[in-house]
Amino acid sequence: MNIQYEDTTLPGSYGVVGSFPKSFGYGVEVSDLEESPTSADKPRILLMGLRRSGKSSIQKVVFHKMSPNETLFLESTNKICKDDISGSSFVNFQIWDFPGQVDFFDPTFDSEMIFKGAGALIFVIDAQDDYMEALSRLHLTVSRAYKVNPDINFEVFIHKVDGLSDDHKIETQRDIHQRANDDLTDASLEKVHLSFYLTSIYDHSIFEAFSKVVQKLIPQLPTLENLLNIFISHSGIEKAFLFDVSSKIYIATDSAPVDMQSYELCCDMIDVVLDISSIYGLEDGSGSAYDEESLAIIKLNNTTVLYLKEVTKFLALVCILREESFERKGLIEYNFHCFRKAIHEVFEVGSSNDGAAWRPASSSSNSQPSLKYASLNGSDV
Fold first, then answer.
1. Can you quote a single GO CC term (predicted)?
2. How far does CA 363 lie from the centroid of its chain?
């Protein structure tokens, strides 16, 4: 579906999230730890933190399109909930949401089974609460996980920062960063690297933080970034994102720094395209009107052009450029064709029992990928 949309009165705020159609949701929740053979091969992202820190809200907003205001009515998690992110997403992985009262010294807590197959551990800290207890639990969690799986990526979400001033945000992040790393140094765990993110479900910061987490699970990330650098340098484009359409997570971008407002603009453009496509588009049988013909151009009132084009059924390229650069539309479309072809050459489509699994073209079809990295979804062109 082609959309040409020109906006001359775009408002200054881009903080609206959660306007995806319900058909872009994910699979059902599973609250036990029994795994099928296929799910056991997928890397895990573990969501941990104290009670009421916002773990379940993050999962619901990012992967289930729940409105942030609706998360106020979520009940506290009292058991481990496993969510299989597949089918609607380019990246295949599992999210395990842990209750805040997990006791690592409980004999029934199998650290080996839980941490061994994890690609990333996200620890959520409530920035609006006293975080001393959370820092103690963070240290205990990281030290236990590192002993079992030294390759795991440790991510710290300093959450609920929407209620803090900019100065308070910076001071809170600095204090948590300092205390957490000091605790690791005192325990002779200097090799452990913690990544810190300021997040809130009421803006796009949670999507950007999750983007950074997921990117570390994609072994082809350097190749994707290089392809984007080549594309924008030959097309006069200022910034380009490769988005997972369903979740608004960007799996790659060019080497230029990410400006938050630019990212928010691109997220809002995806919302517009999917909302209009769900109303006027023709569904392809899967309940989605997003297909190989999907294209959108939005011209803003500051000579900026937003350009969206389908790459695969799961991916979209969203670019930001100036109107004078867009006059060479034929060159951009030719370069995009080359870029799209290169993306499909990076990943070959292989059939599996539960859909198309994208594997690196250089790998053997019989080899099993490391659980640290996510398998990737794709579709025939």
1. nucleoplasm
2. 25
Helix 205-215 and helix 55-64, axial crossing angle in degrees, nearest 10:
80
The structure's pTM equals: 0.80
Structural domain that includes position 66: 44-217
- Tell me which of 19 and 187 has the higher pLDDT: 187
**244, 91 Cβ separation under 8 angstroms:** yes
CATH number where 206 lies: 3.40.50.300
User: Which residue type does 340 have?
Assistant: R
What separation in angstroms does the CA of 48 have from each of 43, 102, 232, 303, 323? 16, 9, 38, 44, 45
* Mutual angle of helices 166-186 and 132-148, in 10-degree steps: 50
Token look-up 């053979």 returns: 37
Average pLDDT over residues 81-102: 81
Q: Do 165 and 123 sit in the same domain of this protein?
A: yes
Read out DSSP for 82-102? EEEE-SSSSEEEEEEE--TT-
The mean of the pLDDT values for the chain is 81
